[in-house]
Specification:
38% of the residues lie in helices and 21% in strands. It has one domain (67-233). It is an alpha+beta fold and 234 residues long. The N and C termini lie far apart (81 Å). The chain contains 5 helices and 8 strands, in the order H-H-E-E-H-E-E-E-E-H-E-E-H. Helix 1 crosses helix 2 (57-67). Strand 3 (104-111) and strand 4 (114-124) form a beta hairpin.
């Protein structure tokens, strides 16, 4: 075949595309188990972080097995149902319009300060999804710890939800008022601080109002789903 012909060029290019595609597909298949393991390790790190246990990637699995004593799934009535708490896709549950069909994972931790209940959260930020974990003391009212993360919030603004400076003030806040009503946590802007109850509020991120309010909605909406379970434990 004439190497200078259009036919040769077309065939050569086609073969190269097929070969490269096959190599990439093979690499993706072979790497997928490693990617899934890394995702699982990061998730365990975040769950542990909500109860103030810091673990690097090498320590995460062992510390998770040591600290997390139970994991189960409930519905919005607070009843246990079938399911694997760790593998539930929160994005899919967030998209489920019928609250009665949502599967709500719960993790129980044994910490130096006693038993804690960890509730996963998922919502919408300014640009992309946000998510996190809130750990409650055994009174099922006082927050022991919280951790949040995001996919694409603005660095220095909304992305600050993933920093210790934003997360630490959640510790010690309460989600029920003195009358037993679930009030969740207000993410208060400077103009709202005067009227916000300090027992149930933290400061919003300066310049990150939309992300702050998205996180407030996430915490409020998801705690409402867990409310029946929380009251049963209380």
């Amino acid at each position: 075949m004439d190497k200078n012909s259009n036919s040769y060029t077309f065939i050569y290019a086609s073969v190269m595309v097929i070969v490269v595609a096959a190599i990439l597909a093979l690499a993706a298949v072979n790497l997928k188990p490693f990617q899934q393991k890394n995702v699982a390790i990061e998730k365990k790190q975040n769950i542990l972080k909500s109860v103030n246990v810091i673990a690097n990637a090498a320590q995460a699995e062992a510390k998770y097995e040591q600290v997390i004593t139970e994991a189960f799934v409930v519905n919005n009535q607070g009843n246990k149902v079938e399911g694997d708490a760790f593998t539930i896709n929160l994005k899919e549950q967030y998209s489920q319009k019928d609250a009665s069909k949502k599967l709500l994972p719960i993790f129980v931790a044994n910490t130096k300060d006693g038993k804690k209940y960890i509730l996963p959260l998922y919502g919408a930020g300014l640009w992309r999804p946000i998510w996190g974990y809130i750990a409650l003391n055994e009174d099922m009212n006082t927050i022991y710890g919280a951790t949040f993360d995001h996919q694409g919030e603005t660095p220095g603004l909304g992305a600050e939800i993933a920093t210790p400076g934003f997360q630490k003030p959640f510790k010690g806040k309460t989600i029920f008022d003195k009358d037993g009503k679930l009030v969740s946590i207000t993410i208060a802007k400077a103009s709202e601080k005067a009227t916000a109850n300090p027992a149930h509020s933290v400061d919003a991120i300066s310049g990150g109002t939309i992300t702050s309010k998205g996180l407030q909605a996430m915490v409020g909406d998801d705690l409402k789903l867990y409310e029946n379970f929380i009251k049963k434990v209380k």
